[in-house]
Amino acid sequence: MRGPWLTSVFGAVLLVVLPIVILTGLLSYIAYGPKFGMAIPADVGWLKLPSFDWPSNPSWLYRLTQGLHVGLGLIMIPIVLAKLWSVIPRLFTWPPARSVANVIERVSLLMLVGGVLFEIVTGVLNIQYDYIFGFSFYTAHYFGAWVFIAGFVAHVAVKLPKMIHSLRSRSMRSVLATSRADTVSEPLDEDGLVAPDPDPPTLSRRGILAVVGGGTLLVAVLTAGQTVGGWTRQLAILLPRGRSYGNGPNDFQINRTALTARIDPALTGERWRLQLLGGPQPVVLDRAMLAAMPQHTVDLPLACVEGWSTVQTWTGVRLADLAAAAGRPQPGSAIVSSLERFGAFNHARLQRNQVLNPDALLAFRVNGADLSLDHGYPARIIVPALPGVHCTKWVASIDFREV
């Protein structure tokens, strides 16, 4: 079955899917606010991306981009494996390089194959388990992505003309109409993909396409439930980081529990106060004062970098109203700090457009009930299109800044 046509079919699919995965991954990095030092890694040297304020509209923007990144990243695994299977003879040719062009091709192939396997393996493990690596996943994933991107661009530049020529060598309609009994090998090719003396086929080309397509569809079914919700989320076995849920109105995903974050329940009770900074003097508000302020209710998604997302109905005080109460009605940014004392995400810095978005809230209630402790009681941030990890839980203070 191996040959330029079959390899080119898998390559053409990846040529469409991989740029989407790459772009949405880079957008996720930008969404984390690298200009505020909130993205990991913070220092990327000359690999620094163009800086701009991540939009807070539409509210489903991050849900879409990160859902595509993780979802397509998982769905393409059967296609990547099929593509690697189709070029196995090429990977072990000897001598490995016979010309300068061949050296460039082999190096790009090493970067491409090594890069995509590293990104897939570490990405899948990261959504399966909580920080199991002996290194920063985010740092490794970022720099690994650039190795892969360089190999991908070089490989496409070298192989695109040959891929187009191979795809034109036979039509998809004729392949789908050919049974196993009528299947013959492709003509011998200069890359050595076609076996000189092939065994009789055990599967037709349309059978191979069906197997790979079926595997891709199966992965999609086992992934989509984390976004679709309802009974389908029980099928989402590839995203168990989002399989911990609350109860009743709080029945949606929990990434980090209060116990894991070492939240002292005593600090979330009657002693809890919200401190607003950035104005002429600090403002301290208790629950009664916050309840007396105008309340706003809105349906907003909560989307995680690991790929799961959910839409809930949130109720709370607009961040813009809190900025006005603090004495800085037009802040340039805001730093939200949590009762959580440890961890990389015990605070978040919000951009001006995120603070002033009319749907950006300090939320106290969800779906008509108080937040559960694991969901951030007594108060959490919820901002349209903001990565979930920056929707800080167990909020203790908000510092509204001029810039």
Automatic annotation (TrEMBL):
Where is the signal peptide, in residue numbers? none
Where, by residue number, does the polypeptide cross the bilayer? 12-32, 68-88, 109-129, 135-158
For whether the record's keyword set contains Nucleotide-binding, the answer is no
Sorted alphabetically, which Gene3D superfamilies does this protein's record hold? Oxidoreductase, molybdopterin-binding domain
Q: Which InterPro entries match?
A: Mopterin_OxRdtase_euk (IPR008335), OxRdtase_Mopterin-bd_dom (IPR000572), OxRdtase_Mopterin-bd_sf (IPR036374)
- Keywords per UniProt: Membrane, Transmembrane, Transmembrane helix
Where do the Oxidoreductase molybdopterin-binding domain residues begin and end? 267-401
Pfam families assigned: Oxidored_molyb
Source superkingdom: Bacteria
Keyword Membrane found? yes
Show the GO MF annotations: oxidoreductase activity
User: What PANTHER family does the record tag this protein with?
Assistant: BLL0505 PROTEIN, PROTEIN-METHIONINE-SULFOXIDE REDUCTASE
Name the record gives this protein: Oxidoreductase molybdopterin-binding domain-containing protein
Native source species? Mycolicibacterium hodleri
